[in-house]
Structures are given as structure tokens and as C-alpha cells.
Amino acid sequence: MKNDRQQFVYSVLRQTWAELRGLGRKAFGLLQKTPLPRVLVFMLGLAILLTIVPLMLTLFVVFMLIKLLFLMIVMNGHRQSADMPARASAWRSQDFEDVEVIEVSKLPEQRR
To answer: Would you report the helix, strand and coil content of the chain in percent, each value rounded to 5?
Structure first.
């Protein structure tokens, strides 16, 4: 059983290597027919792409982490300020008993 599995993996790897070698030969033949300035422009474009894309991804991750850190600080500040009156018992339920609810339609209109 183990021998059959090894033969299968070996044949798959051999076939994959043959396909990659064929693709490499085709790419090399195409590269031989392409003028040198076009190859140079392609290589420069590829180098710029391989340089800028990781930089962009890194900056994106850094700014997202900064944004998350800032959001955590702000939310922690809001939570502490919301907890302060409850802990200090500065607000009592009696303070809110005299509140009168007014409907918007009953508000006097402002004159222009």
C-alpha cells in the first residue's frame, strides 16, 4: 500500500515537473523573440510591482493597527466617563423625575 502511494506521488511530481519545464521552455523561447528594450521595461515594471505592493500592504496594516489602537483608547475613555457618575453616585433617580416630555409637533415655531 505504501509503495503504491509513493509511486503515485512520484508520478504526479514527475508530470508536474515536465509541465513546468515545458512552460519554462515556451517562456524562454518567447523571451528570445522579444526585443531587449521591451524585456527591460517588463522587468522594471515587475520590480516596481514587487516593491510597491508589499509596501502598500504593510502601510495598510500599520494604519489599521493605529486606527484600532486609537479606537480602543477612545472607547476606554468613553467607558470610564460613563462609569464615573454611577460609581460616584452623582446621579440619582430623583434628578430625572421632573423631566417633562414634549412632542415635536407642540413646540412653538420659530419666526424668521
So the answer is: 80, 0, 20
Closest C-alpha among 85, 103, 83 to residue 93: 85
Q: What is the dihedral of CA 36, 38, 39, 41, to 10 degrees?
A: 120
| pLDDT tens-place string over residues 8-66 | 999 999 999 999 999 999 999 998 998 989 989 999 999 999 999 999 999 999 999 99
User: Which three cell numbers mark 34?
Assistant: 522579444
pTM above 0.85, yes or no: no
Q: Which residues contact 39 (CB under 8 A, 6 or more apart)?
A: 31
